[in-house]
Amino acid sequence: MVLRMENVTKRFGAKTAVDHLSLHIDSGEMFGMLGANGAGKTTTFRMMIGLFEPNDGEVSWNGIAPQSLEARTIGYLPEERGLYPKLKVMEQMIYLGRLRGLSKQEAVAEVDAWLERFHIPHYRKAKVENLSKGNQQKIQFIAAVLHRPQLLILDEPFSGLDPINVDLLKKAVVNLKNDGTTIVFSSHDMKHVESLCENLCIMNEGKPVVHGKLSDIKRTYEKRKLHIRADFSLSFLENFDGVLQMTNGAEETTLELRDETVAEAIFGQLRDLGYVRHFSVEEPTLHDIFIEKVGQPYA
Ligand SMILES: Nc1ncnc2c1ncn2[C@@H]1O[C@H](COP(=O)(O)OP(=O)(O)OP(=O)(O)O)[C@@H](O)[C@H]1O
């Protein structure tokens, strides 16, 4: 399933929530959406699944409008979790499975397998309202995947989970991807996007400010961080051409450089000055790129 969003704009009254967004997500890909609160991620997801119509532009999956896809094709984990608190887990999952075209037996088999995988088979008959927040989230995740969708859209799937459950869910997501599911997800933790996605989009005020392959984005982002530990004073580097910022830690000096050629120039000079214990150039993190492009740390 290939997703194409061409020049998509969505307005709510005077507010432009998504502004001329073009995206291309390939079949079987895991795609990350980043953006501060209100950047337009959820609105984008809702257009991907046909809940919202764009004011301008087009959305299609394999050339088909999302509204025309079969219910079985899409799985969606909404940001606002929407389970029925009074219903028992299995009853509720059977109901949702039936809505997506599964028989009762198929739904029960899928749900039992997922409950085992998530180490919560004993909650089969529990009311949702009696589960912890993290376990409710696992149930909500199961609701999004029990019909084995080809496209899975996960809005903040890891928020509110402890590290063990984050790992459990991450593994599940990676397995689904390896089985061929196309996955789009948003996360407020850039490390999740960095570890899971080859391709991503950073949105800011409805506009895509960075979009493409993570490795290409990092390569074309010129700024580098340089870490040095030396047995002599490095104070002369403060005014070195291409050094944008210098921070002296207890053991190590960290420099922000205009680009990697500055590191080479510094390296050439240090060799003649004394013993250098450590010299390393760091690739930019997604966090660095986000701050540069969006102008503020991620909320
Ligand atoms: N149904 C709506 N009616 C009016 N305005 C809306 C509606 N949905 C979203 N908006 C506005 O559109 C903008 C983008 O919202 P959206 O929920 O897509 O952002 P987001 O990136 O998902 O944010 P968050 O990380 O906080 O979930 C916001 O300013 C929001 O207030």
TrEMBL record:
SMART domains in the cross-refs: AAA
Domain ABC transporter: 3-230
Keyword Hydrolase: no
Keyword entries, A-Z: ATP-binding, Nucleotide-binding, Transport
UniProt superkingdom: Bacteria
Keyword Nucleotide-binding appears in the UniProt entry: yes
Signal peptide: none
PROSITE patterns, alphabetized: ABC_TRANSPORTER_1 (PS00211), ABC_TRANSPORTER_2 (PS50893)
Gene Ontology molecular-function annotations: ATP binding; ATP hydrolysis activity
Similarity comment text for this entry: Belongs to the ABC transporter superfamily.
Entry protein name: ABC transporter ATP-binding protein
Organism listed in the record: Salicibibacter halophilus
